[in-house]
Structure formats: structure tokens, C-alpha cells
């Protein structure tokens, strides 16, 4: 934690000023800033890092300011990744990298974050056919990391392809592609003050700023808007006052290293609660905001309270621990970018489903230890409950802070296993031999209770996501009498240890696949001998063995004719096959019912 | 990129539609046997025997036979279900039905499918339910195995029974043969004043 103090020095510079607001007129708004060598401007799309989540959130900067006590804030309008709203997503994605813009009123629309939570820019292109939207070229779309044209109404929870005139107080023209922004590699949606540009123009990433777009005409309405927003500004001040409380914690945390690592885990919630604050924050009752914070002051004594409390100072903690993380994260981001560029796969690296709000309400994570948060929010948004409660859960000491594998109750979107060594596997040793070797070395694992429709690649991806281990998987091919409930797959791991670890983990813990299937793993006992001697049902008449006619009959194939003994016997077999079919059907029906009954015990949904 | 995946999947689905799943194959059946047998209904593009690693060894084998056209696959299926079809032995017929994607080991991912997994914390009340489900999965697997064993036993029993019937039948025909051969039949016919002039020779196994 030595470098903690140094994080404050992370290269930062304000850009163009905008206006002043706040009760005491001590809030300075900005249009741009430079942070860690990257120039950001209003309406840029950015990645926001959330502690403990491998994939950053995506958002659009819709307000930037510095409070009286010099803390830097940004207000972010969120984008949703499809997996975050999968429950509401009916149609196919129009584009593999499609994301959804938050709209409407409610939690998850937009909220205030510490500026330091920003980890990088994100090239998001609007592909809406809306006439107000400057249409992107194919090249633009190809360059884009993400595209969007639909919105997700956080209040009504519906997806629509209409974009309102204003979202979270931001005019639609800033939401669509901005003229001039549609240039490959430029992520600038808005110009950056050129003074700033000249000083900081060449960022580490070598991006050159498009300067002087921001003409005075543009600016005037800008200022007007500023005026309109004043009341909001005042509210935004409230949190900043509370910031002081935050600082206490901050210092406290920097004293104690363990505490700090605790914080690491918990600073997911800051954001979480920030979003939740939106309920009151964005929808504007500062009173509520303040109140809430008071509340949290009260609760700060107990640990859970504390964790939630970090909230507004959110990443003031992040800021402290920040440096390391940030760097680490930057790298992560970069690599994500690189790979996505290289193999042109959808950019979906290990990702935690950040807004557990959607997916998590499936398994209602109501914690008994969390009376306050839940009580407060349960009335209007069940989702928030989850958000609030989840942190508490993460906090439990049982969960080691940095254990990436145990992601707690978070729903994780399955990401693809890196393909690096797969190519070399192809065309080498046949699968069966590899499997045999693996079995002898104890590296072979049998997975059960997969969805029978999963492909081998899906299984590999699931293993990769859950264990961060590469493997080679092959689904067991189904036959006429295979169970429709449980798909199986053989998986070869790199070492025996990994295989055993995976089995133990799945045995002790529970990895829930979609549709509430817990994954089951075991060491199989496959038989490889291809020598199958027995086959019931083919008869040979000893006497006729040597006769030519008989030999022919065996070696060739034919349909039986209905006036022969063979036909009669064949009919017996057909009858038996039919009865067996009925049995299997009954058995699987029965099993299906049993599964359904047990699944019915899942809490909520 | 996404469309490439979709194309791949569409191509795969096409393949599934023109593929026949053959069941109850004797271990003597080889790819060439299948090809010769089904060539009369169309061109066999490929034959893939489904490996059986987990089930009892005396399970009949299964194969996926890809025809050139979907129509041909349909013809194969309808013919083989109308009349018992023998391959490399009798009297147990081969069964044919339409293949489904799950039968293919190399099936591609479904395009656009996004999976989510998550670890349940041990404290989660749902963990208990999940554990029950895990047990259920194992129980069902055992049930399936037992059922399969039972089925195989039944099949063996039927085979044995048929074998005996066949033997008895053979004996009968043999007897008739000898009676015909040594003139007993004629003598008896004369005695009972019956006419057996038209030669009703012994029917063979067919």
C-alpha cells in the first residue's frame, strides 16, 4: 500500500471550464479533463472500473465537476451489456457487440461516480436509423468496440429502439453520434478545449485531439443548460459534503492494510449504492440523498454499514488503492482490446455481470444482516435489494478478497476460452487416444447435468469462466435413449491436480448454470476397448453356416419380406424396441417431474 | 464475424437434416456395409459411428449417416421404419430415425447464445436446493444405467428365446427334409390316400 499516497499524483489536469454551481458556488463544472494521459470530454463513452469485477461498466459522461473539497466527480449515463438485461431481452442481438442505453426513470439510469473510477475510453457507435443520428459508416461500426441503437427503460424495464429527446437530462444530440466523432480511432464525441489540447495533446496512447470543434455557438446553449441544471447541482453538492465522512474512512483504511483489502472487495458496492442512489439522486430529491447518507453515517459502526457507506466516496477508496488497480486494469483493458482486434471475436472477456440487479433477482439474495438497505428500498425496486445485499455477502470474511474463482453470488457471463493452444490440438492425436491418456493420468473429468444442447466449445467456455482453467472438452453424443435432462461432456484438464480441484470445488460448492442446473463433475470410468463381441439379436443357424445363401444374407443388407420367419422375429424386435421407447419416455418424464419439483424450491422465481 | 458463426450453424443444421441416425447396429457393421446398404436410397456422404465410452459394452452401436440430400434421408427413414431392415445379420432389424443436433459431437455453438454461470455461496439458501439437484442428477444417471441394463437383459433374453425357437424350427424342417428324403412321406401319403404330387419342398430359413 506504499504507493497509495502516490495515486493522487496520477496525471490529471482539468480542461475547459464550464460553469459554476452548488449552494456555495464552489462547484466547478468542466467540459474536459486529462487523466492518466488520456483526454476526456463531456459525452465521451468510458469504461468505469468496479472493484472486484473483471469487466468494467460502460457509460457516457454527462457531467463533470469538482466539488468544493476538490473531489472530482463525473455523472455517468449507463449502458447495459446484453447479459445484464438478458431477462428482458427477447429479440436477437442486432450486432454481436450490441449494448443498450439506459433510459427512462429509475435505478441504473445514471449516477455520480468519482472521476478516478474511469479507466479508459470506449468507442461506442450509435447505429440507430433515427434521422437525428448522424449515420456511421461501415468502417466506423467495424472500429467500434460497441454499438447501440436500442434503449433499456430502467423504470419500465422494456427495450425499445426509440430514443427520447432527453435521457437523464442529456439532449439526444449528445447521445447520438456526434458529427466529427465518426472517425476511425477517435473516441471523442466532443471536442476538447484546445488549450488543454495543446498542452496535453499527445496522450500516451498517441491520440490526437480534434480541436476547436467547440465553437461559441455551441457553447451558449451549453451554458444555458448549465443554468437549468443548477438545482441538480446543488444536490450534487450534498454528497460532496458527505465526502468528508468518507475521508475518515479513507484514512482509516489506508492505515490498515487488511482493512484496505477489505475495501477492495467492497468497493464494488460503492458503485452499487451509487446507482441505487440514483433513485433519489437523479430523480432529484437531494433531501433524500442527504438523509440516506445520514443514515449511513449511523450505520458506519458496523461493518456492513461501512461497506455501503463507502458509497459516495466510492472510489476515494479506489483512488487510494487505485493506482495499482488502475494500472493492472488498464493492462487488462488493453489486452481485451488487443485480442478483440486480433481475432475479431466479440469483445467479451472475463466479465462479471455487473448489474446483478437484473440477473440476480432470480435468486434473491436477501441477507438477514442487512435490515437497513433492504428495508429502505424493497418497496420500490426489488433489484436494488439485491444490489445492496450482495455487498454484505461479499464482505463475509469467509470470502477471501482476492480469490477470483469464488465470485460469490455474482452471475458471471460465460466468456470464451482463449483459443491459443486449441489450434495446435487439432489434427494431432485423435480424441479417443487423448482421452485414454488423460484417463490414465487422472486428468479426465466427466461433467453431468449440462444442457444437452451445449456444444463442446460451450463447455470449455463454462470451465474457463468458472475456474479460469483451459481444458479440452467433448460432449458425449446423445443417442436415441439418452437423457434429455442431463447432457454429459468429457473434459481433459492440463494436470491431474486441476482435474481434482475442479471436482472438489464442484462437489463442495455449487456452480449454477443457466436454467438452475448445478454442474456435476466426477471421474468417469470409460471403456475404450473397441472390441465389442456381444451383440444380442443376430442368430446364426449352425447347419446353414457354410451355405452360400446364408453368408450372403449376413454380409448384405436387405429388407425382410413379410412371409418369413425372419420377418416374424424382426417383428418381435420391433415390438421390444417400441416398449423400450415407452419405458424410456416414462422414465425421463418421471425424472423431469422430479427435477421440476426440486427446482421449485429455489427461492424467488 | 457473427454472421460467419451463423452461417456455420446454418450449415450444421442442414447437415443434421440430411442425416439419419441408425441404431441397433451389430459390431460387424462397418462403414462400407452402411454405404452399400443405403446407397440404393441415395448417396451416402459420410458415416460416423457414435463412440460409446460410458454405457455397457454390449450396447448395440449407433451411427450417423449423412446423405447427400434431405429427401434421401427421409426416404431411408421411412423405408427402414416400414420394413425391418437387416444389416450384417438377422433377425434383429436396424432402426433409423432423424438425427438431432445433440447427437453430433462436433456441433458448433449456437450463435448469439450467451451463457451465465455463478457460484452459489454456501450460505445461500438455494445452495441446499442445488445440492439436492446434484444428488438428483446422480440418481437419475443411475436410474438410466439400470434401465439400460434392464433393456439389454431383455434383449438378450429375446435373442436367446428366438435362438431356441429357431433351433426348434430348424429341427422341424430338418425332420421334414429327412422324411421327404427317405420316402416316409410318400409312404404315409399312400397309406392315407393323400396326394402330394406337387413338390412342396422344405422351406428354408427365409
TrEMBL record, chain A:
Q: Which residues form a coiled coil?
A: none
Q: Where is the composition biased (Basic and acidic residues)?
A: 338-370
Residue ranges of the BAH domain?
38-163
Name the segments for region: Disordered.
260-323, 338-408
Q: Which Gene3D superfamilies match?
A: 2.30.30.490
GO molecular-function annotation terms? chromatin binding; RNA binding
Q: Output the Pfam families linked to this UniProt entry.
A: BAH
Which InterPro entries does its entry note?
A: BAH_dom, BAH_sf
Q: Which PANTHER family does the record match to this protein?
A: PROTEIN ANTI-SILENCING 1
Q: What's the name of the protein? A: ANTI-SILENCING 1, Increase in Bonsai Methylation 2, SHOOT GROWTH 1
The species this protein belongs to is Hibiscus trionum (Flower of an hour)
TrEMBL record, chain B:
Q: InterPro entries, from UniProt?
A: Epigenetic_reg_gene_expr, Nucleotide-bd_a/b_plait_sf, RBD_domain_sf, RRM_dom
Q: Does the keyword GTP-binding apply?
A: no
Keyword Repressor applies: no
Q: Which Pfam families match?
A: RRM_1
Domain (RRM): give its ranges.
Answer: 18-101
Q: Name one GO molecular function term.
A: RNA binding
Provide the alphabetized UniProt keywords. RNA-binding
Q: Which PANTHER family match?
A: RNA-BINDING (RRM/RBD/RNP MOTIFS) FAMILY PROTEIN, RNA-BINDING (RRM_RBD_RNP MOTIFS) FAMILY PROTEIN
Name used for this protein in its record: ASI1-Immunoprecipitated Protein 1, enhanced downy mildew 3
Q: Which organism is it from?
A: Hibiscus trionum
Q: What is the lineage of its organism?
A: Eukaryota, Viridiplantae, Streptophyta, Embryophyta, Tracheophyta
Amino acid at each position: 500500500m506504499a504507493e497509495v499516497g502516490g495515486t493522487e499524483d496520477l496525471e490529471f489536469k482539468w480542461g475547459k471550464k464550464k460553469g459554476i454551481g452548488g449552494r456555495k458556488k464552489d462547484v466547478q463544472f468542466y467540459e474536459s479533463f486529462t487523466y492518466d494521459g488520456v483526454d476526456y470530454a463531456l459525452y465521451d463513452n468510458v469504461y468505469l472500473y468496479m472493484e472486484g469485477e473483471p469487466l468494467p461498466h460502460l457509460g457516457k459522461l454527462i457531467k463533470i465537476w469538482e466539488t468544493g473539497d476538490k473531489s472530482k466527480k463525473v455523472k455517468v449515463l449507463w449502458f447495459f451489456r446484453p447479459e445484464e438485461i438478458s431477462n428482458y431481452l427477447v429479440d436477437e442481438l442486432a450486432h454481436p457487440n450490441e449494448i443498450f442505453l439506459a433510459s427512462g426513470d429509475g435505478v441504473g439510469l445514471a449516477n455520480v461516480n468519482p472521476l478516478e473510477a474511469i479507466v479508459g475510453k470506449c468507442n461506442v457507435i450509435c447505429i440507430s436509423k433515427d434521422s437525428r443520428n448522424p449515420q456511421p459508416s461501415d468502417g466506423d461500426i467495424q472500429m467500434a468496440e460497441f454499438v447501440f441503437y436500442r434503449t433499456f427503460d430502467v423504470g419500465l424495464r422494456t427495450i425499445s429502439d426509440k430514443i427520447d429527446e432527453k435521457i437523464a437530462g442529456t439532449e439526444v444530440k449528445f447521445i447520438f453520434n456526434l458529427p466529427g466523432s465518426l472517425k476511425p480511432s477517435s473516441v471523442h464525441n466532443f471536442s476538447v478545449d484546445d488549450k488543454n489540447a495543446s498542452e496535453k495533446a499527445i496522450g500516451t496512447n498517441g491520440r490526437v485531439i480534434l480541436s476547436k470543434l467547440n465553437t461559441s455557438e455551441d457553447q451558449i446553449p451549453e451554458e444555458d443548460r448549465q443554468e437549468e441544471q443548477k438545482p441538480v447541482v446543488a444536490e450534487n453538492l450534498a454528497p460532496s459534503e458527505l465526502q468528508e465522512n468518507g475521508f475518515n474512512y479513507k484514512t482509516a483504511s489506508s492505515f490498515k492494510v487488511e482493512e484496505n483489502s477489505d475495501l477492495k472487495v467492497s468497493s464494488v458496492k460503492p458503485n452499487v449504492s451509487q446507482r441505487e442512489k440514483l433513485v433519489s439522486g437523479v430523480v432529484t430529491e437531494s433531501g433524500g440523498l442527504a438523509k440516506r447518507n445520514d443514515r449511513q453515517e449511523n450505520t458506519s459502526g458496523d461493518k456492513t454499514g461501512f461497506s455501503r457507506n463507502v458509497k459516495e466516496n466510492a472510489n476515494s477508496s479506489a483512488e487510494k488503492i487505485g493506482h495499482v488497480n488502475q494500472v493492472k486494469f488498464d493492462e487488462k483493458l488493453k489486452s481485451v482490446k488487443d485480442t478483440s482486434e486480433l481475432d475479431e471475436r466479440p469483445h467479451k472477456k472475463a466479465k462479471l455481470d455487473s448489474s446483478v440487479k437484473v440477473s440476480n433477482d432470480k435468486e434473491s439474495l436477501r441477507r438477514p444482516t442487512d435490515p437497513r438497505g433492504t428495508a429502505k428500498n424493497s418497496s420500490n425496486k426489488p433489484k436494488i435489494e439485491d444490489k445492496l445485499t450482495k455487498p454484505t455477502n461479499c464482505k463475509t470474511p469467509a470470502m477471501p478478497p482476492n480469490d477470483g474463482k469464488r465470485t460469490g453470488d455474482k452471475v458471471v457471463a460465460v466468456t470464451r476460452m482463449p483459443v491459443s493452444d486449441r489450434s495446435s490440438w487439432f489434427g494431432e492425436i485423435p480424441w479417443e487416444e487423448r482421452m485414454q491418456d488423460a484417463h490414465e493420468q487422472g486428468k479426465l473429468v466427466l461433467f453431468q447435468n449440462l444442457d444437452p444442447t451445449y456444444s463442446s466449445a460451450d463447455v470449455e467456455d463454462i470451465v474457463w469462466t468458472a475456474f479460469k482453467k483451459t481444458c479440452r472438452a467433448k460432449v458425449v453424443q446423445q443417442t436415441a435413449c439418452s437423457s434429455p435432462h442431463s447432457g454429459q461432456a468429457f473434459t481433459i484438464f492440463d494436470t491431474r491436480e486441476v482435474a481434482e480441484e475442479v471436482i472438489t470445488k464442484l462437489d463442495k460448492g455449487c456452480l449454477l448454470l443457466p436454467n438452475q442446473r448445478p454442474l456435476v463433475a466426477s471421474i468417469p470410468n470409460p471403456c475404450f476397448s473397441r472390441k465389442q463381441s456381444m451383440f444380442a439379436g443376430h442368430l446364426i443357424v449352425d447347419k446353414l453356416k457354410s451355405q452360400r445363401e446364408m453368408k450372403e444374407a449376413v454380409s448384405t443388407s436387405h429388407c425382410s419380406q413379410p412371409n418369413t420367419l425372419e420377418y416374424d422375429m424382426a417383428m418381435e424386435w420391433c415390438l421390444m424396441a417400441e416398449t423400450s421407447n415407452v419405458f424410456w419416455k416414462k422414465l425421463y418424464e418421471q425424472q423431469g417431474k422430479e427435477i421440476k419439483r426440486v427446482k421449485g424450491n429455489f427461492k424467488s422465481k | 464475424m457473427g454472421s460467419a458463426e451463423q452461417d456455420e450453424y446454418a450449415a450444421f443444421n442442414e447437415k443434421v437434416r440430411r442425416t439419419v441416425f441408425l441404431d441397433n447396429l451389430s459390431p460387424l457393421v462397418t462403414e462400407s456395409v452402411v454405404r452399400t446398404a443405403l446407397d440404393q436410397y441415395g448417396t451416402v456422404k459420410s458415416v460416423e459411428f457414435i463412440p460409446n465410452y460410458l454405457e455397457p459394452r454390449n450396447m448395440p452401436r449407433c451411427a450417423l449417416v449423412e446423405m447427400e440430400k434431405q429427401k434421401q434421408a427421409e426416404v431411408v427413414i421411412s423405408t427402414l421404419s416400414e420394413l425391418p431392415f437387416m444389416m450384417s445379420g438377422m433377425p434383429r432389424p436396424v432402426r433409423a430415425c432423424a438425427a438431432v443436433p445433440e447427437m453430433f459431437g462436433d456441433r458448433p455453438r449456437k450463435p448469439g447464445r450467451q451463457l451465465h454461470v455463478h457460484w452459489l455461496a454456501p450460505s445461500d439458501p438455494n445452495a441446499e436446493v442445488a445440492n439436492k439437484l446434484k444428488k438428483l442428477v446422480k440418481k437419475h444417471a443411475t436410474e438410466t444405467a439400470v434401465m439400460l441394463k434392464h433393456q439389454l437383459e431383455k434383449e438378450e433374453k429375446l435373442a436367446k428365446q428366438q435362438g431356441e425357437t429357431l433351433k426348434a424350427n430348424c429341427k422341424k424342417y430338418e425332420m421334414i427334409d429327412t422324411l421327404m428324403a427317405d420316402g416316409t412321406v410318400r409312404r404315409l401319403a399312400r397309406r392315407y390316400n393323400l396326394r402330394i404330387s406337387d413338390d412342396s419342398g422344405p422351406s428354408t430359413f427365409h
